[in-house]
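# step 3/5: fold
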Amino acid sequence: MGVPLRRRSGRSVYRESTPVAAVVGVVECAWTGLVGCRRPLRVFPDGCVDLVWDGTMLAAVTTVRGVLRHELPTAEWTAGLRLRCGVGGAVLGLPMTELGAGATPLRDLLPAGARRAEARLAECGAPGEARSVLESLVAERLRDVEVDGLSLAAARALRAPGARTDRVAAELGVSERGLRRHVRHDVGVGPKELQRVLRFHRFLTRLETVVRGGSSLADVAADVGYADQSHLGRECRRLSGVSPGALVRSWTGRNVPD
């Protein structure tokens, strides 16, 4: 699940931390959110799945097919784990193509484990306690499943600007059809679509340099692998619903041309 553009927005605060060693191979980060007030939030795609506790429900949240409009709850805090791109299918126990965009109650996917975790999470008084429960849930799950290393390796390779799916398949020792089958199962989209999502996520990680005046949109577009600024604009509208300049304006309030 892509993170909100700003780590602080009004009274809301978002923080990431390194997961425990037992799950670091499949968990990209642990995170906590101090909600502050109920409000809508745009969440941008990154190819990952988040396990999210919002105070009432434990859910698997995916946004790989586009921006998610998410309503922040009225809870004091939330906590989650971001699974690495390429492990969703194994950890959740189903092809990711069967999982709809947005939040799916984890009890619908892993009934016994999720219900035990929810009972423990309901007793947590602080985000750190909830994080430990979530890490234990994933560690227990890893004892029962085998993560597809090929999907993980493919996701890493497809992050590189200029990566080609045929070359990635050859480097991993599979056919392009085989690569597509693995990636669709563990991410929910094919390699070419995942590559577009990962490129857009690289752009989002560079957005702050534009906001602070360190780079132009044209420079960032070239650096992250777009053909030109117009190409960035088309992809940004497709995956976020707005233009690159609008994303900058939503952060700063100042006018930035597209």
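# step 4/5: annotate
Strands lie at 8-9, 12-17, 27-34, 40-43, 49-53, 58-62, 68-71, 77-83, 102-105.
# step 5/5: archive (pending)
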